[in-house]
Design goal:
The protein is mostly beta strands. Helices cover 7% and strands 35% of the residues. The strands form 4 sheets. Strands 1-2-4-8-7 form a 5-stranded antiparallel sheet, with no helix packed on it. A hairpin with a 2-residue loop joins β7 and β8. The longest helix has 15 residues. The protein is globular.
Amino acid sequence: QSPTINLFAPELSSVTISPLPLEQGSTASIIVNSESPVSLTGFLDTYPLKFFSETPGKYFSLQGIHALSEPGLKDFSITAEFEDGQSVTYSQVLYLMPGNFDQDPPLVVDPKTVDPEVTKPENELVNTLISQITPTRFWQGAFTSPAVYQEYNSLYGTRRMYNDDPTITFHTGVDFAGGLHLPIVAPAAGRRPAARPPARRS
């Protein structure tokens, strides 16, 4: 069970962090229970925390931990601001332990696919898309697997080296071995993005 932290503020009853210790490549869950409405901000390591609430008096934040984040002590802090103007800040350090990841054999690929001039703009585009935060949740229930069979070709976080470069990188996704001609499904209901206007020709 995750430990509960007493903030010594009458309106805040508890803050629960899970899992502890933190682990490379995992997602930290921070749950705050409050006796009265509160506005919460904070950070974990270098990441700002965004809090949401679907139940009165209960607030939560989810924060991913980078798979190559340096193990050791990480700063954690939250600030609670109440409607009457009172505020309280709580800070402590949390231990981040190494993750348990596989290691692929050295890989040989087309140099263009690992050229920073190519990969950096792609990574920046992906980060722009996945960093968007909305106050509304657009799904219900637990995510389902996109594949019929629970078999995988490669797991998230697997350590990799390319073309004799000693730099260690990692697999940023999960490769499902779903089976030939079997369906692939969306893990949850979603929302279609707004249609882009047709391109103009000059």
